[in-house]
Amino acid sequence: MRYLILVLLLVGLLLMSIGVSAQSEEIPEPLRSYLICDWGLLTTEQSTEQPPIFIQIDSPADYSAVEGSRFTISGTGAGLFEGNIIVEVSNDSGEMLFEGTTVLQAEEMGAAGEWSIDIDLGDLSEATPVFVTVYSTSPRDGSTVAIDTLRLNVMSTFGLPYVEITTPTFGAGVLNSPLLVEGMAGSAFENNIVIEVQDFETGDILAESPATIQTEDMGGSGPFSVELSFDAEPGTAIQVYAYQPAVADTDEITVSDVQFAIVSPLAQTYDRFLTVRRDDYIASAEDICAVAEAEFDNENIQPLVINNVVIMSTRSMMPLVNVNIEAAGSSNCPAPLRTRTTRSDNDFDIEVYIDTSEPVPCTADLAPIPVQVSLGTLPSPDFSVMVNGESAE
Q: What is the rounded distance in angstroms from the CA atom of residue 322 to the CA atom of residue 376?
């Protein structure tokens, strides 16, 4: 039965990608992370679009080596007040080694452009790991509006040791047969690292595998990839632990990374579902499950206009169901956009709305807002869906 559920999940995810293909040509699919609470499933969405205000360091590469104490940092950005960018370089002790400013070069105000700055750390006698911070501030209150960081090994030909997991992303729903783990690493002994899959609750190791950094240089930097299979029920919280093994038995592991994920969260269904965006205060609440549960009692809501609903489901005794909703609302509204779903047997009531608990100015136009709601794998192919009070066929 477990194998059947996972097969259905794979098929269903494929259907979901087909169902939103028309939208994804214009609007990139958001990254989704999941958290299973006592009351149901919380989904957090994060847009993959470049934000209107950002700073990004493009060169040199993170954790790389810089042979001298003089070098250039460059990158891109957008939406910065007068294009102003502040650059700070400090050592591991927090001592400031450099402070400077540069200006974003863009064709017009608010547009994306490029920036660069020459760094001079003076006379350094030995290899020095440094931390680079590049940021821009608001002219209103001095708060940071965009930031990026970089680690470098200055006065050296060797990069800093590191491990970074890029797949799975935080809170992602994953399969356990196999689980693909990808990332970047560098300066590891014999270019080898170790990957473990651990039960998040117990810490038990469910799977373990070595991985080789793909680089032609001994101690170089490059990608790694490995597939692991393990036994775990759908909904099991896991953590993926990647580390550079200690060279000697007495050494401690000092270079590692960890990522949280959930095994096949949509291989089952839940009594309640809540979807919020990453910048919603619910997503960063200390007791996130309790705060999210309270949202089901929130009566300060303004439902969105629903123009169309498409239900995608696998043709099976236990269908995986995805609901694609063409909603419409204000094109400029800082109020949180949320979707909550309540299940009664095989009947699902979906509400797509903005939270009006705090009064905020919103434009009065109706711009298209695509919404996707996953109902999980249902125990029966006979189910009904209501969206903002209207039956969806």
A: 8
Tokens 């003089």 map to which residue? 70
Distances (CA, A) of 389 to 299, 322, 323, 328, 341: 15, 18, 15, 15, 12
Confidence class of residue 153 from pLDDT cuts 50, 70 and 90?
very high
Place of tokens 């953590």: 239
Q: What pLDDT is recorded for position 4?
A: 38
**Closest Cα partner for 130 from 158, 101, 103, 155?**
155
Domains of the chain, first to last: 2-30+271-392 (no CATH), 64-154 (2.60.40.2550), 162-263 (2.60.40.1220)
- As a whole number of angstroms, the distance between CA 275 and CA 352 comes to 9
pLDDT digits (tens, 9 = 90+) for 125-146: 899 999 999 999 999 889 999 9
pTM score, whole prediction? 0.83
Distance separating the N- and C-terminal Cα atoms of the chain: 29
To the nearest whole number, what is the mean pLDDT of the chain? 90
| Residue among 174, 326, 192, 149 nearest 236 (CA) | 174
**Closest of 115, 91, 90 to residue 105, by C-alpha:** 115
Query: Which long-range contacts (C-beta less than 8 Å, at least 24 apart) are formed by 122-126?
Result: 122/69, 122/97, 123/69, 124/69, 124/154, 124/155, 125/155, 126/155
Which positions ≥6 away from 171 have C-beta within 8 Å? Answer: 32, 33, 34, 35, 44, 260, 261, 262
